[in-house]
Amino acid sequence: MMFTLLPLFIIDELGGSSKSFGMLEGGVIFLSFMARLFAGFFIDIFKKKIPMLLAGTILTIISKIALACSGTILFVFFAKSIDRFAKGLRQAPTDTMLADLATNKGFAYSLKYMMNTGGALIGSAISSLAMLCFPNNFRLVFAMSAVPTVIALYILKSKITYNDNKNSELTEKQKWSIKSISLMPRDYWNFIGVIAILMLARFDIGFIAIRAMDTIPNYARGVPLFTGIYEIFAVLAAIPIGKLSDRIDKRIILLFGIFFLLVGDLVGLFAYNTISIILIYLCAGIHIGATHGVIYSIIAKSTPTHLIGTAFAIFYGTEAITLWLANNIAGFSPQLALSLGLSASAGPFVIGIIASVASMIYIGFLLNGRKSQQYIAS
Fold first, then answer.
1. Residue 271, Cα to own-chain centre: how many angstroms?
2. Which of 11, 84, 173, 360 is least enclosed, having the fewest CB within 10 Å?
3. Are 199 and 292 contacting, i.e. CB atoms less than 8 angstroms apart?
4. CB distance 208 to 268 below 8 Å
5. What are residue 70's phi and psi, to 5 degrees?
6. Low-confidence ranges of the chain (pLDDT < 70)
7. CA–CA separation, 84 and 220 (whole Å)
């Protein structure tokens, strides 16, 4: 509910600039990833998930109230930092509890992604309606955004039963130490290698918008429509492909998802009309929906139970570094595109093609032929 309005609030209400918003976003995203790392290792060291999840949920409520009370950009940064830190704290226990509880992990993680994205779409719709009913009352919408989190806290406290100590005998024998990282199976490290290459192809969706601005006159008017296409197709792809990944070799699903990303990048090279831009958003959405649940389920299946938090922490760190690299490389790629005789805005898609093909080769040759349990149906 708050994300779509926050840039407007900073610029229109507080007199900030796009530069101040960019600095805020960069700082809080970094903080969120650091919180994920901390939470993942914390879970394996202290063998507790529920307290971390509760702390993250309570901090989220506090952040919404703080944002509604913000009077300066510095205070907004403080409130948003709490929100992102809280999201990071929630991520690791959520992912590890799903690994523990779900039989069909591909479906479970795809469902989680669908609920996250669907919730964001509904939240955006509610905030738009609220701004129509109460024009420019940003603070009211920010306060309203605390309500879903309060409901989530109630469900967590009263409806979910989870025993953090059910593997106490096992965990006493397998105390966590920094050496535990070396106990990760080779299949896990192979997959982290795949992820590192694949994430280089996942530059921010904003670069698609930049390409669209070069292609479609008055593109800004249709931004909600185009981003809606991306999110809707991601949601539509998530559940059926998540279910399928629990029944066939997950490598096939990964290759299928990366193929759509490759198609989108190829279209991005020569996009010249509205249909081609729609196709890029559509392919990107299907790619995310098809691969998100599979990636998380492979991590969950390829790791010893007592190191599941560490496994996700390493994944979060890899994702953070490679996405940072991907966006920086994409930012410097226009010169490469010009040297190839393409439009400058096609540069990120050149990088995307290279990384997509490399990750497909990695999956198809390095991992193909190894019958590992992490790729077999749940």
1. 26
2. 173
3. no
4. yes
5. -65, 135
6. 4, 7, 17-27, 164-177, 220-224, 366-378
7. 28
